[in-house]
């Protein structure tokens, strides 16, 4: 494995730009994750790979907006963010990449196994499939992925505006690379973190604690989070700043 680019020097506050990608001429494929959930960084572009198949972990991106799947060789995504319960995985594979498994690859890891069996090679997680079907119907009623994208963009824009416009909260990610789905923020006084979380819980706002490797707060506003929920969080943050800022 070769790391094509890293932004560790900026503490992962941005995604690498295209010119920073050092791709190997003999690479079999290029892999990236469009949305990084811990730091809250999102690629604002689809990498060009000089003809190499592009593989993407879209667990935090799929169904959040329209995606041009023709740009990819392989897309895989856990369902637990925007699709349904954990335990279901979506896989989209370009047809010419099917049937190229290495010798000795277990049947369950061979894409051709599932293609030939119409994804029914084994007993699937039927309840997870059923719930995913309900989500798909809901998205269609909503107006499809174009409508979902507009909602998600409004949610993210409103929360970032509240953070940027305050004197207590901060988000370190460069604006072009800010995630729509995972929005981390810190308080100017870290000693207020525990108080913020406790008061937020009393207000019905939970799971706001940031990842243990980063600290601070993190609001994950996937498709299931309505705009009203984001506005409730913003109102709480503003009231908290009024009392503790």
Word description of this protein:
With 245 residues, the chain is of the alpha/beta class. A hairpin with a 4-residue loop joins strand 2 and strand 3. The longest helix is centred in the middle third of the chain and has 21 residues.
Topology:
Elements: E1 30-32, E2 35-36, E3 41-42, E4 54-57, E5 74-78, E6 89-93, H1 111-116, H2 126-142, H3 144-164, E7 169-170, E8 182-187, H4 193-202, E9 217-220, H5 227-244
Given the helix and strand composition, which structural class is it? Answer: alpha/beta
CATH homologous superfamily caption of the largest domain:
Type I PLP-dependent aspartate aminotransferase-like (Major domain)
Q: Return residue spans where pLDDT drops below 50 for at least 5 consecutive residues.
A: none
Question: SSE string, helix = H, strand = E?
Answer: EEEEEEHHHEEHEH
CATH top level assignment of the largest domain: Alpha Beta
Proportion of helical residues: 25-40%
Largest sheet: 4 strands, mixed
How many separate structural domains? 2
Radius of gyration: 20 Å
Shape: globular
Percent of residues in beta strands? 5-15%
Distance between the amino and carboxyl termini: 47 Å
The number of helices is 5
Strand order of the largest sheet: 1-4-5-6
The number of distinct β-strands equals: 9
Instruction: Return the CATH topology of the largest domain.
Output: Aspartate Aminotransferase, domain 2
Mean pLDDT level: 96
CATH architecture grouping of the largest domain? 3-Layer(aba) Sandwich
